[in-house]
Amino acid sequence: MTDGLRYYVYGVATAPAGAVAPPLGWVERPPLAVLCCPWQGPDPVVTRQLALAHARVVAAAAVRFPFVPCAAGNVVTGAELSDWLDGRRTPLCGALERLGGRVEFALKLWRRAPAAAPPAGGRAYLAQLRAESRLRAEARALVERLPAGLVTEVHYTEPPGLLLQAELLVAWSDAERLRAAWAEIAAGLPADRGARLSGPWPPYYFAGVILNGEAGVGRQSGRCGAGAGEAGIGAGGAAPAVAGTGGGAAG
Amino acid sequence: MGLVELLRQLLEREAVRQAEASLLTPEQEAALGTALYRLAQKMAELKAGFGLEGDDLNLDLGPLGRLY
Asked: A158 and B31: CB-CB below 8 Å?
């Protein structure tokens, strides 16, 4: 991998990995293998088209085998790839173990309310903060009503404008069950609350959490299963749709 | 500014915690609430002044995760 070539990187699997259609290929550094394709030309600009093409390849990979997705737009040299794999071998193997056969959902909860009037004094502002805190706790309690064992890991954040955002990691085979369980809970939401569940996505968020060693992941299950599904990778031209990648097509 | 925003949020959470636990007198609640409100207003002014919004002040706190 010190061949001077540059690679567009999709993600990491366990070596030896399954067959993929050219220009996709594997750069193997056992026990890991990186799904990538040769890249020529300047670094890519992450356009919507490139992001979608990247997502298609990652989604196809994630249903075939345990796969840790990388963000769109990463181009590295073979030497950089080797260094990265050597330096992150343990967390990458851990991520493959935890993310294999799993997908993630993002759940956003917010309050539909007119902008709060300026508080009439310090105590009023503190009361406003306490009310918001209670609403966040209620939102979290709603997420925790999801059936035990359905969500294997959950990570909460409180972005501006939202009561709560929950990232949920579930087994691929439980994706529809999660949708149904949340629909049942959401049906009982007060009229002034809004919620949106999006997914299933390849576990980009949790890959970042694991590889960056972040804390704050709530529930955690035991071992991950292997990926399931029959979808192929590369068939249908997913990789060539990545603008300028592979086969000498780069600009 | 990200660091100030982190401290502001921590102060607000601690104030809420103390108020919920009835650890503050009405006078202390008024003083603390006023100070926190002014700080929130000032941060909003600064963000607007620098054209910052949404995720711009988010911080990666390493092992603690992200600020939001």
From this structure: no
Q: Which long-range contacts (CB under 8 A, 24 or more apart) does B30-33 make?
A: B30/A121, B30/A122, B30/A123, B31/A122, B32/A122, B32/A126, B33/A119, B33/A121, B33/A122, B33/A123, B33/A124, B33/A125, B33/A126, B33/A127, B33/A129
Cβ-Cβ contacts under 8 Å between A and B: the total is 68
Among B16, B30, B34, the residue with its CB nearest the CB of A129 is: B16
| Structure tokens, B64 | 């603690």
Report if pTM > 0.90: no
The pLDDT score that the predictor gives to residue B35 is 96
This complex has an ipTM of: 0.88
A100-158 confidence digits (pLDDT tens): 889 999 999 999 877 677 788 899 999 999 999 999 999 999 999 999 889 999 999 88
Those of residues 106-165 in A touching chain B at CB distance below 8 A are: 119, 121-127, 129-130, 133, 155, 157-161
